Amino acid sequence: MQYGSLERRIATALDGFPNLRRGVKFLYQRCNYLLSGKSAVSVDLRPECSIRPVLQGVQGDPGCFFGYFDKSPWSPCSRYYLLHVLSEESGGRVRLACYDFETNDTTVFQESRAWNYQQGCMLQWQPGDGLKVVFNDVVGRRLVARIVDPFSGTEEALLDAPIQVLSPDGKTALSLNYKRLYRLRPEYGYAPEVNNFSADMEPTGDGIWKVDLLSGTTCLILSLEQLTTFQPRQDMRGAAHKVNHLLYSPGGERFAFMHRWIGPKGKFSRLYTANADGSDLRLLADDRMVSHYAWKDSGQLLAWARKEPWGDHYYLFEDPSGTFRIIGEGVFDLHGDGHPGFSPDGRWIVTDTYPDKARMRALLLWDTHRERVVTVGRFFAPWRFDEAQRCDLHPRWHPNGKMLSIDSVHEGIRRTYVINVEQIVAS
Prior knowledge:
Elements: H1 5-13, H2 18-36, E1 43-45, E2 50-53, E3 64-65, E4 80-85, E5 94-100, E6 106-112, E7 124-125, E8 133-139, E9 142-148, E10 155-159, E11 165-166, E12 172-175, H3 178-184, E13 207-212, E14 218-223, H4 224-229, E15 240-248, E16 254-263, E17 266-275, E18 282-285, E19 290-297, E20 300-307, E21 311-318, E22 324-327, E23 341-342, E24 348-352, E25 360-367, E26 372-380, E27 396-397, E28 403-408, E29 415-420, H5 422-426
Antiparallel strand pairs: 1-26, 2-29, 3-4, 4-5, 5-6, 7-8, 8-9, 9-10, 11-12, 12-13, 13-14, 15-16, 16-17, 17-18, 19-20, 20-21, 21-22, 23-24, 24-25, 25-26, 27-28, 28-29
């Protein structure tokens, strides 16, 4: 039921024709689904694993989710779980809530107008003392980030820029232009009109900002102009540029990010790392395709990318040298692109897949010691949850390394779940 190597080669050949590729993909996926037959099950889970929704659905409930795969919904003490709660009468807002595993109570503490289905409003726990959360919002026609006590709803700080990722010490953040993202990739940007960001900011004044959470000051540390003049390529000419998926290393000394441009020759992506202040820029992957990535430790970065002549694989890069090796060649990479993450002990890699021909998404574990792949489960994705409405599993590890968090729509409603994989990782 998986898409094979020939189909992937055809998709790669169509990279230079994005509109044609989109149309061919749309028709081919639907034809394959009709031929494969509707999935007989909504979820197929290994018998030694268990799954539970964080919130039980009720009739008419539009659902809930956590968000992106590079953040943890669990509080540092693991008692609380963050989530976005949807509402049919939201007025463009999403409600932000905190679930208590000990009491089974859910507290809605704020709302946000700056959100999307893929990454939410970047809702996340702030590292450091106390239990505070950070999220993006629109206040007075300005795109901002707010620091809030989720139990009282009290606002601790209001930052004059949105955040993408928090440093491990919780003192700084990295920011980007979500309005540019909305124009070039709507499912990752924010729709509300604001005054402090626009989709057409000059390349000299747009890019990656560093935000001081204590003083609230912001500083542009890498501009789009710098990126387009760093080892420039011919296909950059006449293209629209953006950055996305900023990710601090576990120690906070460096960060990774993707530079992507879309122009007459199609879509291209680069993978970079840099020091926390934007200096010592390093180019790790520059063969057109880079997708998702995760730090293993402060010196190693795992990414689904293309490196010629080896092709598309999971590559483990050494940073900053750029040397690399392929992970799970011919086994793990047969499942294609996903959203990877390392277990707390570094042994296991969790990732997911996009829907196969029967619209089933797989949740996978890769054992780096024994070099084997374990399919934890497969989850049905109804067609109405597609394109900007899609719901990737976006797996995330519990701090104890025995449970996973996912978002899924296999029950016909968007919901966030916890899966126990203790017996697998202990075997």
